[in-house]
Amino acid sequence: MIADILKHQIAQALHNVYQIEVSDENVALEQTKPDFEGDFTFVVFPYLKQSKKGPEQTAQELGAYLLEQVEEVASFNVIKGFLNLVVAQNYWVNFLSKNFSTNNFGFATHPTHQKILVEYSSPNTNKPLHLGHIRNNLLGYAVSEILKANAHLVHTCNLVNDRGIHICKSMLAWMQQGNGETPASSGLKGDHLVGKYYVLFDKQYKAEQHELVAQGLTQEQAEKQAPSILAAQDLLRKWEAGDEETVSIWKTMNGWVYEGFNVSYRTLGISFDKYYYESNTYLLGKEIVEEGLQKGVFYKKDDGSVWIDLTAEGLDHKLVLRADGTSVYTTQDMGTADLKYTDFGCNQSIYVVGNEQDYHFKVLQLILKKLGRPYADGIYHLSYGMVELPEGKMKSREGTVVDADDLMAAMVEQAEETTIELGKTEGLSEEELKNLYNMVGLGALKYFMLKVDPKKKMLFNPKESIDFQGNTGPFIQYTHARIKSVLRNAQAANLAMQFDAAEITLSKVEKELLVSMYTYPEVLAEAGKSFSPGILCNYVYDLAKIYSHFYHEHSVLKETNVNQQALRLQLCTLTADIIRSSFQLLGIQVPERM
Question: Which H or E run includes 86?
Answer without folding.
Answer: strand 82-87
